[in-house]
Batch of 4 targets.
Target 1
Amino acid sequence: MQNGNDDWFSNSGGTGAFIIDTTGAASMVSRYLIDPAFRKLPFFRTMRYPQYSIVNNRLLIDAAYIRDYNGQAVGDSTAFVTSNKNGDSPQNWGGGITSVLDKNDIAEMMIHVRREGPLKSDSLWFFGGLSLQGTTGNRYFDFELYQTDIFYNRATGQFYNYGPDAGHTSWKLDGTGAITQPGDVIFTAEYSSSSLTFIEARIWVDRRTLTITPKDFDWAGSFDGASNNSQFGYASIRPKNGGTYYSGLQSGNNTWAGPFGFIDGGNNLTTTYSARQFMEFSVNLTKLGLDPITLLGGSACGLPFRRILVKTRSSTSFSSELKDFIGPFDFFTPAPVQAQADVPVFCGVVSISHLWVTNPLPASVYNWTTPNGHIIDSTSGTSITVDA
């Protein structure tokens, strides 16, 4: 971590914040040293701060880290076993155990969403990170964001709870180009031996929607569905205003691999990445036109997606064969609000009771109402006082 900048993890003691929860990392690494079978298991970590925390004057929405299945003798445990493509319906995807090339084999994945400042008007940024077992040649991957609670069943090798429009959820625009319904999004990236060479944002739409000029973004010219004549597919988009809306980096040789270490394709524990092993990118969702504040007059507490699937592809073509995957996994699912009272029940005796939220989020606003009781003082805040 460079001084003053935030990062996924930190080992430098700088003034920036690190984002992923590293609780138990030291004990896990200690077990990795003596237990090769333990190195093969996946695990999941979330953001180390509560959702919507303001840290270093930035609004942190959520983050996640996932390590994939690794070092299985028969191949990767969660990979595409049939000839599947991005434009296909997830209903037709087939997952299971199979061998994949090192350049397609996902080792771990990271994601973080935040605002550039503390306000809902500040730019919304999407950060993605990915490490692969292979480091040679060009590498191609997608971060796909869903509206539905799509999930993968390892027992059947099938995906469920996919969207209603050829397996996805389509974006809908009215005649003026205003968004009336957000849908699925995909960010596709390509890294060469030296740098990020290409990144593209696409949204799932009905082909007829391309005749409408959107208010919040522009069409970029590409459309790919399951076939050449598909009604639904992923259409490329770009910002209304010119300029760069994304950036990307990849690791140099001997880059620190974080507190959990890195498990290579031979099931060996290492403390560093090789050159080009880890890649990360960022996308300014506000500039791209996908900020929930501008979507349907959306709330600052919302995101235009519910679950995420990370995939690798065989070539630069968006329609090339899919290889490995992680997910789909939940993202930005705040815990239900919990409250307590020092006097839970009035039994005919005039009294007062104090009620408070036991798991408040620091950037949230809490409003209280009652159908037939009586709140004595303010009806907003993390606590109230009632006398009926």
Note: The helical segments are 25-34, 285-288.
Target 2
Amino acid sequence: MLFIQLLIFSLIFFAAPLVVGQFFVEKAPKHAEGVFAWVSGQMLLWAVFQVICVPLVLREQSFLLLVSLYLGVTVLLALGGMVYGIVRRKQAYSLRGRTGKEKAPTQSVTKVLWLIFVILFVVQLVLAVLLAYEEGDDAYYVSVTA
């Protein structure tokens, strides 16, 4: 069961944003396409979640409806990103054949950017654990009265 949960987490946290972010990769520097796609995909999925979640919360709809709608929209965006990415890569491959090789990405810059990302991610996790407190007024009373 733990394996299945980790697989679902990996798909939602890593794969879906990376595929959805294919819509924005053309604007990224060549050496950071993967990171740019993942971050852009996360931001788009967060925005979509807010657009879906807020009206459903205000109408007091079920959580299952929210999960179903968000999953459906995420799957549609991921499929669209996959198709867009495949078409874009085919076009780039055909253009590359005519114009010569593309410039290779700088490995040191990519490694430094990943290191910065990992450090910031770990800092956020540590601060989230250290700065969490038990009884915040809003979160405690909203969950008790709901």
Note: The two ends are 30 Å apart (CA to CA).
Target 3
Amino acid sequence: LDQNAGLHDRLRRAAARTTALNELERRRIGSDLHDGPSQTLAFAMLRLDAVEGRLEESGHGDDKDLGSVRGALAEALGEMRTIAAGLRAPELERAKPADIVKRAVADHERRAGTRATVDIRGIPAGAPLATKIALYRILSEALSNAARHGQGAGVEVRVTRSGDALLAEVSDKGPGFDVGRRPRRGHLGLAGMRERAELLGGRLELESSSGAGTRVRALLPLNEVESDAP
């Protein structure tokens, strides 16, 4: 039993370190996308403007192929910026859990154009970094699912303390779905949220049924574990 307990503690320390390192890597990739391919696409759009201007001067400004190219470039640039923004999370190390919740909801409302009510009564003043990272990512994914699959109807966010864990809930009043069925494409984010929670020793619960909306509930540990860094 002592050996198992020791192995469990080592696993949690490694998981906390891995979570933080993964977040740093996501932030780096997001910055690379923003500063690299996104800038190249933006430059291509500017050069295309110049080409279209010259064609208009010569009386050939109604080229449909150029319009298609412009549309494809604009779409690619928009997708690239969205991916980069999703990879780069805000600075979380010094942020309080309440600030993280507000940031996740504000980002969601800006992207989806739908409102969400927030209840953070009883939320603790602090949490381990790995827990704060998981909180932000799980809230972001759950809110995104509520907008896509729940049609943004009656979205509510509640985060509070439950014993030695942080309890985060995202619910909606959308059409819901049968949780017993194999996840369709687009519901794969649920597996990612569950993995984030369980990696830290927490758990993720899902409640949904046809016509009754959906509720995602995550329990994330609040007890600090020492880093497994050398």
Note: Helices lie at 2-35, 37-57, 64-87, 97-112, 129-148, 189-199.
Target 4
Amino acid sequence: MTTLAEFQKRRKPHTNQLFLSAGSDKTILITSHIWWADMIALAFWRAGFNVLLAEPWYLMYTDDARFKNLDQLWDSWIAQIRQHKVQAILGGNSSAIVVHPRTGELLHRAAGVPAVHYWWDEFRTRPPMTKRGITLEQYMNAMRDSRTLNAVWDLDVCEEMEAFFGVENTAHVPLATEPQIWPVHTTPLSKRTHAACFLGNCFRQSDEWVAGLSSDLRRRVEAIVTDKAANLDEPMVACVNRAMASDPAAVAAFTAPPGRANDLNDVLDHWCVIEALLRKKLRYERISALANALG
């Protein structure tokens, strides 16, 4: 059976590449910018699917030349999806979310196939498409699309998105990595005794946002984080609701469900502040303790 290392040797970086499975007429399209794509591509390939590994689709927004030719790329991908009989599109973070700047149509909708977004990083942050005229409302609606599933690796975030943003089409799928793709400079492969490594959360570098908060909002955020730090086994949603119970007017600062007129820029920034404080209060201590325990 092909190993991950052998599969990665066949993989040409930064290209669109098709891996055929003998006799199969079923294809999964995977678009991502990060290492887990190889793991998932290999799993589908071993299961008998053809796999079309694609460059991150959000490059259509971040690269000037691609954005200029977005209509041509749009038509080209629809043609390839149909040609290769793609059954589903799987994308890392916002990689697979392509909203046409003029029509507002989703690319996977236009191609007639469902999409799964696998969220490693947080998805309550501003994606690259917002730099090209796509609004945050369109972005949130893209995640709520009925032909879309959001696979979220952090259970707290999965629950938060439903409770505070109205994104209900989610599934909790924990993320782990195989030793072959851990950073080599950290531990030599020969010394890696664990079969898999679960990744932690809360790594936003946003300390400056904390300093810029109003005194009321900072008090509210610190109340939420203090509650979570004291109740690590409880859902973040419960911690937010409990901290806000005596301050109903503050709920709007963290909530943006469909139909609400909240400023999504502010709401997303407020959640990034929560992440920044959680990182300072929890992440480093927990990772350090885990590293010491595991040697």
Note: The two ends are 31 Å apart (CA to CA).
